[in-house]
Amino acid sequence: MKYFVLACLCVVALGILSLFIGVSDVTPATLLDPATSAHAVEMLMVSRLPRTLALVLAGAALAVAGLIMQMLVRNRFVEPSTAGTVEFAT
Predict the structure, then answer these.
(1) Residue 60 to residue 77: CA distance in whole angstroms
(2) Where do the domains of the chain lie?
């Protein structure tokens, strides 16, 4: 349980860090500055937040898909190449 909480905190921290990484200068200081906060908030809402949410949801979907594949074949160590899904992709 301790490792699960630590992993969740790491994902949240990396998600917050992802909001402030990019070409445009969006930092917590620019969000609080009245002179530049309008542009920073717009950049955060239009570009950074959807990007971060899409990445988190895609990762969660891949985790669920892997879990379903492992449950279907009843093998903890199954991967796409051993299950034959690589051949169907081409």
Answers:
(1) 19
(2) 2-89
pLDDT tens track for 3-45 = 999 999 999 999 999 999 988 888 888 888 888 888 888 999 9
How far is it, in rounded angstroms, from Cα 26 to Cα 38?
A: 11
Q: Round to whole Å and give the CA distance between 24 and 4.
A: 34
Q: How many CB atoms lie within 10 A of CB 26?
A: 21
H-state helical runs in 1-90: 2-19, 28-32, 37-43, 49-73, 80-83, 85-89
- Lookup result for tokens 């860090």: 17
